[in-house]
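Mods, move this if it's the wrong board.
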Amino acid sequence: MLLNQAIEGFTKYMHLIDRSQETIRGYAIELKGFNNFLTVKHNCPVYLEDIVLQDLEDYLFYEKERGAASSSRSRSLYILRSFYNYCCRKDLCVKNIASLLEPVKIKQKEREFITEDELGELVAAIEQPVIKTVVQAMFYTGGRISEMIHLTLEDVDLDGRVLHIIDGKGGKDRDVPINDKLHRILTHYLEHIRDAHSNRFFALTRTGKVSASYINYWIHTAVEELGWDKNISAHVLRHSFGSNLLEKGASVVSIQKLLGHSSLRVTSRYLHQDTDKLTEAVNLL
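Not the wrong board. Structure tokens:
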């Protein structure tokens, strides 16, 4: 069987077992890149049974050479293992050669985060009113950018003060309470800013939706205008949500549930503790 045919079967299988749309899309993009790499390497379409361990290693090395981060290459390896697990279960191949790959050591680095005061500066520097609101919503809910842009009007219950995130990462649903600050912001947005014929909650008048790239464009433009020496993106707002909650005394378990993480180990990567806080901690002794 041709590799691209096996990938098509794997994609259909992920739909069958109700993997999230974001997961399916991400896996499909990664495996398409893998197929393209092998097609160029061998100068012809590749059959699944002809692929050897060296091909997988060459692909991961190619990813490294083109500057992919260790976390990105680790994800590539995970996707290849999932794909080969599927192929073995369906008797498309005899052996899961991806299981023989060495794990990619991920370099842990301090994650950027912003305070609530810095959020105020950032929002003030963003000229687009819809994007201002998206940025505030991400900071006060910890929502992923993909979750924010797909929110519908029905997902945001201002009367019940809860934001329903449907089909989040891993296909999981969760509810995030809307605090008083965000409630005022979203109420003002609906009454005075939103002017779109669309079911999307965050929507531009012209397109009826917002894109992740457009949100990040306005964030990066605002950061440059402010002259900050920080690499701020939409995802940093999610980190900031967890970091600020921890600093204000929220439990890690509560933060885990609000962020929609399956384990505390994942949550711990999102939490920032500065030197002053660590010094205060050791001084407790």
